[in-house]
Design goal:
By secondary structure, the chain is of the alpha+beta class. 20% of the residues lie in helices and 7% in strands.
Length: 270
Amino acid sequence: MTMRMHFEVCSSLVRLSIGGKKFCTTVGTLTQREPDSMLAAMFSGRHTLCQDSEKGLIEGINAALDKRKENEELDSELTRTDIIKCIQSEKVRFRGVNLSGLDLSKLDLSYVDFSYACLKNVFFSRANLQCAKFRDVDAEGSIFHNATLRECEFTGANLRGALLAGANLQSANLQDACLTDCSFCGADLRSAHLQSADLTNANLEGANLEGANLKGAKLSNANLKGANLQRAYLRHVNLRETVSTYETISRDEFICLLQNLIASLAAIAY
């Protein structure tokens, strides 16, 4: 959908034409009453607005989006200070926003919606992200060390190479997520949903996976040394390629793995 705006400098009047419907507002309304909107960001001075000299048309949104598509490695659209201001609101959404490389450590980001955002190399260490939404985000290389991620949604997310050591992921939803090369050392994944997740080369050493659902998950070359898999659901999980890790775990842990596998096979037979 194309959006065009007529901007009159003298009166600060902004005329919007959205889908053929016309709306009028002011720059003050866009920047003060809705400070976390894309329109407010356009007039905040952080973006360059291209004005048509003949028609006075501003294609700021389209220009910004096109530019981001051309170069996915752009700097973050917002700063840490911007984020802190935004999270003071009741409902915060950063859906589809590029926050690459930001330091968001130790912030209270609970219930924030990051869906479809670009979160490459973001520093979330020790942040409170309980119930936050990360659906289909690109968070490759991000750091969630010791972060609180209870009941978070990571469905379809790309977390390749992310560091989640010591993170609290109880009841988190990681279905269909790309978790290749991720580090979950010492992470709390109790009752986590990992159905069809790709955990190839993931480091799960010392992780607590008690009661986790790993149905159909890929665990090729995954390190399960010292991991707690009691009551974990392992249906359609191929553990043969993780046999190398059995040589380094205790006898009791190996027996626990076999018991879970037998229980899963029994459930299939039933």
